Amino acid sequence: MSKTCQILGTRAGVGNRVSHSHRKTRRTFAPNLQSKRYWVPSLQRHVTLTVSAKGIKTIDRIGIEAAITRIRRDQNVN
Q: What is the pTM of this model?
């Protein structure tokens, strides 16, 4: 499973881990990804999406139909 939100495209960020003596080593900041199952009325089936916490709020705001349309549009562009 890819560590990317399917709605927003959120990926892991990178930065520095700073020790007490201020030595810096590279680290990653993982996004808060959840596997969530949604019922899609137009398809008459469940769809499982890997979305971030902010992506879940976006789906709640715009609706699952618009979110799936957005995913398909982004896949066609790439």
A: 0.82
**C-alpha 4 chain-centroid distance:** 5
Q: Each residue's pLDDT tens digit in the chain (78 positions)?
A: 579 999 999 999 999 999 999 999 999 999 999 999 999 999 999 999 999 999 999 999 999 999 999 999 988 877
CA dist 54 → 7, 13, 60, 67, 77 (Å): 9, 16, 10, 13, 23
Radius of gyration of the chain (CA): 16
Three-class SS state of 27: strand
Q: Which two tokens stand for residue 14?
A: 């990178």
* Bridge partner residues of 66 (DSSP): none
